[in-house]
Amino acid sequence: MIFGIGLTIFLLSSFAVVYTYVLYPLLLRLLSQGKALQGSTYAQEDPDLPVLAVLMAAHNEELVLEQKMQHLLAAEYPAQKLHIYVGSDCSTDATNDIMQAYAAQYPSRIHFFPFQERQGKPAIINQLAEAAKAISAEVLLITDANVMPKPASIYELLKHFKQRDIVLVDSNIQHYDSEAAGIGRNEQGYISQEVQAKYQEGLIWGRTLGPLGGFFALRASHFSAIPKGYLVDDFYWAMRAFEQGGRAISELKALCLEDVSGNLAGEFRRKVRIASGNYKNLATFKHLLLPKWGSLAFVFWSHKVLRWLGPVFILLSWSSLALLNLLDNNLIWPLLFTAQNLLFFIVPLLDWLLEQMGIHQKYLRYIRYFLAMNIALVKGFINYIKGVKTNVWQPTKRKLG
């Protein structure tokens, strides 16, 4: 009986990991074949294009802010309908000087708020969204300072809001400076897979589940203020919008460029912070996992929850396989257990040793990256249990594109 329980745990836990990382993406690819985004859209010269408020929180963004503002001002969207709201989260560099100059040059289009106390991105965006009510904004575009949109990207997002049931449209974020010496390529690979998965979820069910956060549009009527203690604001906004009804899609033509950190330690800290926020969101939106929510529940389980529980499944798979080795003499168990230990312990160590010698092997780095991100989930969960003390963030090191 103990053997049967151990075998069941091993098979189910292993299947959960394989399903969310391999089988679910394959299912999305299969179901999305031959599909394209449907429904009416605004023409680029349509006078009914919605009034847009771009919302951006900035903390010490002097390296990229000038470039960001130039990209926004160069957008192929009616200037009289594009308003930019920037909140400086107690910046101590030249961020405030840069923004004050732009606000003086474009007083009717650029609205700058130099906050004197650190609050965190969600609190800043909450206040900017409130300020945007003054122009009766129909759509809010929430963006980060280091994400650079192509000229047509804003239009490509906004054109879909002609369909009243569309409440959120995500963009296609790609990176422009991967570091071969770090994990930039691995992070970009992950981002590319996420962009594709979200696009396919939107095609199939209209359930793009949580934008990547750097550049996405949300119908103003579906915006919900982020409460204190929430770290992953983009997912919160998306799930609150789903609760109110409507569809979310991803537009691959809305291309944006973003630098990706190549530093594993820095990326690990960012993932820990995101993980803490994910578990907070899971506790908040657990009711959306019930079958009555249909496709939303299915996507939530498949794309998010099973991944967030990944460390549990990995530990169960490893420990149950160790138990099977003790209970049965079949050669398959020691072979599988040896393979697991090679992946979990030897490969990351080997990759680290090669890295110290200046040798970078992408497949070894993928495995190390995968394990590091699952360790980040564990640390993030511990932080969540302890309680999130603040949602103030420190941007990753910026580079000029």
SSE arrangement:
Elements: H1 2-32, E1 52-58, H2 62-73, E2 82-89, H3 95-105, E3 110-115, H4 121-131, E4 139-143, E5 147-149, H5 153-158, E6 166-175, H6 184-205, E7 215-219, H7 233-243, E8 247-258, H8 264-284, H9 295-308, H10 310-327, H11 332-356, H12 362-386
Parallel strand pairs: 1-2, 1-4, 2-3, 6-8
Antiparallel strand pairs: 4-7, 5-8, 6-7
Family: Belongs to the glycosyltransferase 2 family.
Keywords: Glycosyltransferase, Membrane, Transferase, Transmembrane, Transmembrane helix
Pfam families: Glycos_transf_2
Task: Describe it.
This is Group 2 family glycosyl transferase. By secondary structure, this protein is of the alpha/beta class. It has a single domain (1-401), classed as Spore Coat Polysaccharide Biosynthesis Protein SpsA, Chain A (Alpha-Beta Complex), CATH 3.90.550. It contains 12 helices and 8 strands. It has helices at residues 2-32, 62-73, 95-105, 121-131, 153-158, 184-205, 233-243, 264-284, 295-308, 310-327, 332-356, 362-386, and strands spanning 52-58, 82-89, 110-115, 139-143, 147-149, 166-175, 215-219, 247-258. β1 (52-58), α2 and β2 (82-89) form a beta-alpha-beta unit. α11 crosses α12 (362-386). The longest helix has 31 residues, at 2-32. The radius of gyration is 22 Å and the shape is globular. The model has no long low-confidence stretch (mean pLDDT 90).
